């Protein structure tokens, strides 16, 4: 395997600056990416999601012009990665196409997360034409029964139909990358390998697993939030350990599971320990900026409650309230295994980077 030594040096420099940033509560590095939750609206009502149940203030959502202005700031700042999510991002399908086209014209890598329920062939063609870099479709079951139970009637067939059409549209091109994302819970954990097999059989590139969050509003993180049917019990956690072993072998042999080996190994512990789970330092607030539909920057309900309409993004990143939020994050005891989770350990980061290089090589050889 050929090692890209420039990227290796960049990784080391990023690690050193990340350590210092975390130590002094001041960002010495710019964000690696900016995520736009461009709407809270969604045609589905998934059993584990609270976002769709919020009061949707459509008239207060950031306009296309305002969103483009933020993209200008992201480009000028030197950030290379933007993603669009929700709610369901494609509820604002016309704006999403225009935003991806605009961001791509500025050489930004663009990612889109969707539940695949909105099936619109013209829209999909326009997304690829606009320069979409990565498409992630949420698949929470290997079959209609499981997926529809979690996400709603008819959602599995439409999501798979969407996935297959994107494979057909892309053809033999490299872009967009095509990925499945699965929210791991009691209803589907026994199907994780089958979901991976489904991803491969359809012609997608990668798989990503996300351990369910009992309150994705981060407003009621009390012990009682674990008393939900979709949380794994002790017996199920034992089963998950064996499934994780299989997933790690698949990752090693095929290189198409995006999660780090460490993340996969932590999933059973996360479900077993519940509120006592606390695996490492959280880098939320130092790595990613998340902007909600109304322009607010808020990290897991801890602040800083700053709005992109009030000041340039770069200034908000260094704002006093952001520093206060970073301090609160460092003292946060809420158990979390979100995909933005990152333990501040060089060995972990380096191992993840090597896994990525191997995965890319194996994917190219297939």
In words, what does this structure look like?
With 366 residues, this protein is of the alpha/beta class. It contains twelve helices and nine strands. Helix 2 (64-77) packs parallel to helix 3, helix 3 runs parallel beside helix 4 (121-130) and helix 8 packs antiparallel against helix 9 (261-273). The model has no long low-confidence stretch (mean pLDDT 89).
Itemize the secondary structure elements and their pairings.
Blueprint: H1 5-24, E1 33-37, H2 64-77, E2 81-85, H3 93-105, E3 109-114, H4 121-130, E4 134-138, H5 144-151, H6 155-170, E5 177-184, H7 192-202, E6 206-211, H8 234-254, H9 261-273, E7 288-291, E8 296-298, E9 304-307, H10 313-317, H11 320-330, H12 346-365
Parallel strand pairs: 1-2, 1-7, 2-3, 3-4, 4-5, 5-6
Antiparallel strand pairs: 8-9
Helix pairs in contact: 2-3, 3-4, 4-6, 8-9
Task: Give the tags.
single chain; alpha/beta; TIM Barrel; 9 strands
Question: Can you tell me the CATH topology?
Answer: TIM Barrel
DSSP E strands, number: 9
Largest β sheet strand count, sense and barrel closure: 7 strands, parallel
Question: CATH class, please?
Answer: Alpha Beta
Number of helices: 12
- What order do the helices and strands follow? HEHEHEHEHHEHEHHEEEHHH
Low-confidence stretches: none
User: Which architecture per CATH?
Assistant: Alpha-Beta Barrel
Brief digest:
The protein has helices at residues 5-24, 64-77, 93-105, 121-130, 144-151, 155-170, 192-202, 234-254, 261-273, 313-317, 320-330, 346-365; strands spanning 33-37, 81-85, 109-114, 134-138, 177-184, 206-211, 288-291, 296-298, 304-307. By secondary structure, it is of the alpha/beta class.
